Amino acid sequence: MASGSLKLPLSGDAAADKLLEKDPLALLIGMVLDQQIPLERAFRSPADLKARLGRLDVHELADADPDELGRTFAEPPALHRFPASMAKRVQELCRHLIAGYGGRADRVWKSAGDGATLLANVKALPGFGDQKARIFVALLGKRLGVQPPGWQEAAGDFGRPGTFASVADIDGPEALKHVRAHKQQMKARAKAR
């Protein structure tokens, strides 16, 4: 692994990356926020949110006053380009985790006996469409060793080894450059169509 012992060198900050690795809720929040902002910012935001709140607690986030949580997300530097809507999405995620998994974020994947179930569990999370769910399944499999039977098939192209298609393929700064280049190529192809 290119970044020493870090499995998820995503934020550019070692402490924030360690939080992603040890706290499944932080990882899910980072993944939810990973849209329309640089991925480093998205994955650093859970650590910033924890610093602002004192801790990341699924029940406190679920029960928070929505306006107050939105203001927390908007404090400079804002945790996302769209702080109010992302605060709402994180709150919806936490409520879903409480209702479906007893508040334990890791049960989303630990309860899945196969890749199809894992993908279904992730797709049911607020803020996870089909592509993001497949990327997250690939991230779990490639970076964290969560590999129930059929996980690569569930992840689709993102589960293939040796690619630089998504955040699931980032193991250090060089891989991040390759993933960015791949994304730019994909955007250019989409524009050309």
List the helices and strands and how they pair.
Layout: H1 14-22, H2 24-33, H3 39-53, H4 58-63, H5 66-74, H6 83-101, H7 107-110, H8 115-123, H9 130-144, H10 151-155, H11 173-192
Structural descriptors:
mainly alpha; 0% strand; globular; 11 helices; Endonuclease III, domain 1; 193 residues; single chain
Question: Mind explaining what this structure looks like?
Answer:
It is a single chain. The relative contact order is 0.12. Helix 2 (24-33) crosses helix 3 (39-53). The longest helix has 20 residues, at 173-192. This protein has a single domain, classed as Orthogonal Bundle (Endonuclease III, domain 1). The chain starts with 13 loop residues before the first helix and ends with a helix. With 193 residues, the protein is mainly alpha-helical. The chain has helices at 14-22, 24-33, 39-53, 58-63, 66-74, 83-101, 107-110, 115-123, 130-144, 151-155, 173-192. The protein has eleven helices and no strands. The protein is globular.
